[in-house]
Structure formats: C-alpha cells, structure tokens
Write a structure and sequence with these properties.
- The protein has 2 domains: about 10-80, no CATH class; about 90-170, PH-domain like, CATH 2.30.29.
- The chain contains 4 helices and 7 strands.
- It has helices spanning about 20-40, 45-50, 55-80, 145-170, and strands at about 10-15, 85-90, 90-95, 100-105, 110-115, 120-130, 135-140.
- The radius of gyration is 22 Å and the shape is flat.
- The termini are far apart.
- The mean pLDDT is about 90.
Amino acid sequence: MLFVPLRPPILVARPRDWTAVATWILLAGLTIVFVVIALLVRLPDAWISLAGGYPWIVRVVLLLVSLLIVRWLGDLAYSRLPRASFLIGRTLVFPEQAGRRSIKLDDIKRIVVALRPAPAYEVFVAVMYDETTHLICATHQVGGPALYAAVARRVARVQRVQARQAAKRRHSPNSAT
C-alpha cells in the first residue's frame, strides 16, 4: 500500500519578516491557480466512472491533492528563507552568523527556552553534549513551538534508545567487568 504522509517531511520555523510575507503571497497565488485548474479542467470519463458517476467527488479529491502539494511546496519554500530554522529527518538546520549550520539530533543533549535581549526575548537553545549552545529560533516565529516540541520529542527518544543500549551493554554476559 502506498503511504503518503499528510504532513511535509520538513518542519519549519519561519521568521515574521518581509521574506515570509512575500513567500506567503506567492503560495497564495499558486493555491488560486491550482483551485481554478481543479475546478475548470475537463475530467476524464474513467475518473468520473471510478467516482460512481459523480464529477464533484473527483473535483474535491483534486482540490485536496492540490492543497497538499501547495503545503509541501510551502514548507520547502519557507525552509529556504535566510532566517528560517527547520528539521528534516534527524538533522536540525538553523541560521548562524556565517550562514546555516546543521546538527544531528543525536548530538543534542537537551533543548531549552532561554531569555535573550530584544528583539528575540525568548529563544529555543540546543545544548550539545560538550555543553556548547546554539540558538535555534525565537519562540514567536511561526512554527517555532512546533519545531521545539518535535525536537524535544526526538531528542528524548534518542536518549531513551541510548540508555537502553547502554543498559543492554552493562548487563550482557559478554561484557568485561
């Protein structure tokens, strides 16, 4: 069975600046184009017969698929913004002064909320195992709290797996003590 996740594989925290607004306007225009195409396109007879002779069912499915595609394209476009932070797979990518930096979730000890001076105020900070810290994004960014929750869940999962593996190594009969 083909599995298509409804959530994009990229989780993005985007800034509230003109670049995000311009991207949003472009995505709104793309959505309008997709909706007009889905409503006006001539439907193949085979599709209508699959829907039991109801063309509106095919149009609703086309609309939903087009909205899903726009959402995926939107997250991809937002992830390319200069001040956006995003999580893709097991890699967290965030802006730094010299460009972008990516770190593996396995290298993060914990993620915390820290206070900073204006304009950021509260920010999410990743604490590494060597006690270095990296500013990920501000809490007020669109998608920031969701990014924090996803990273915190995945870091906790990685730590649970590492703890289980360490316990297994300690209690295995082959280990030298």
